[in-house]
Specification:
Elements: E1 5-9, H1 18-29, H2 34-45, H3 47-55, H4 62-65, H5 70-78, E2 87-91, H6 99-106, E3 111-116, H7 119-132, E4 137-141, E5 153-159, H8 162-165, H9 168-175, E6 178-189, H10 197-207, H11 222-227, E7 231-236, E8 241-247
Parallel strand pairs: 1-7, 2-3, 2-5, 3-4, 5-6
Antiparallel strand pairs: 6-8, 7-8
Helix pairs in contact: 1-10, 2-10
């Protein structure tokens, strides 16, 4: 059915080890520490300053702090059915952690357009591009809602961009710059079942520095599914993450 999200729970055959992922999550968030849990609650209650720091003064630490998710990033890119010569949008590209994998798929004849509103994050991406001599990467510093995207793209990636996915204006702007049938992939964190309340607290602590508003964190793909012809969603790590793939109408 058009716009309907088809869900399936991941297992080890997809390359994600749930036990290891959850062990890393608890380690990084110190979920058993009451003081740390309270800090997470405060961050979720007043996210603006926290998110600003994570993507601004703390941008130098972003790759270290989120390195545990690189395998998930790579899986998400791998699911985009890109061809050599394609143009792909990397929405919320941050420091450029997905650029290399995207370039490997579109080849020298393709183009990757990274878009991000955070100057400090994008500066890291620029350094990455310059250091590797990539000639077919264009970086745009702009809010996604108002980004001047210079072309119609064959595909789009939303990796760990919860706030973008909750913005109808941002999604509409991206959608206007996709070819009919363009491939779409989105992935990131989400809240697991309400019954796993302890895990939900830990997931909140893990993502609080990077999420402006947790509205929709139970089904982050909801608005995206309304604009896609067929969005298939796979949940990861006992429902604490997801990968979604579909095509634009």
């Amino acid at each position: 059915m058009l716009g309907e999200a088809t869900r399936c729970v991941s297992d080890r055959k997809h390359g994600i080890n749930n036990d290891e992922w959850w062990e890393n999550t608890v380690t990084h968030t110190e979920a058993g520490d009451p003081a740390r849990i309270e800090t997470a609650r405060e961050q979720a209650a007043t996210p603006a300053a926290t998110v600003s720091a994570a993507y601004g003064p703390d941008a130098d630490r972003y790759e270290q702090r989120t390195g545990m998710f690189q395998a998930v990033r790579d899986q998400l890119v791998d699911r985009l059915p890109l061809r050599p010569g394609d143009t792909v949008l990397d929405v919320g590209c941050g420091t450029g952690l997905c650029l290399e994998a995207l370039l490997a798929k579109v080849g020298a004849g393709g183009t990757v357009i990274g878009i991000d509103p955070a100057p400090d994050m994008l500066e890291h991406a620029r350094r990455r591009v310059a250091a590797r001599g990539w000639q077919n990467v264009r970086l745009i510093e702009s809010p996604i809602q108002t980004a001047q995207i210079p072309t119609q793209a064959d595909a789009v990636l939303f990796c760990a961009t919860h706030d973008v996915l909750q913005s109808p204006v941002a999604l509409a702007n991206v959608r206007q710059h996709l070819r009919p049938g363009a491939a779409v992939a989105a992935g990131g964190g989400k809240w697991p079942s309400r019954w796993l309340w302890g895990m939900r607290v830990a997931v909140t602590a893990l993502h609080a520095p990077y999420v402006d508003d947790f509205t929709g964190f139970d089904r982050p793909w909801r608005l995206l599914s309304e604009q896609m012809a067929d969005l298939h969603v796979q949940e990861l790590a006992f429902g604490a993450g997801y990968l979604a793939v579909g095509r634009a109408r």
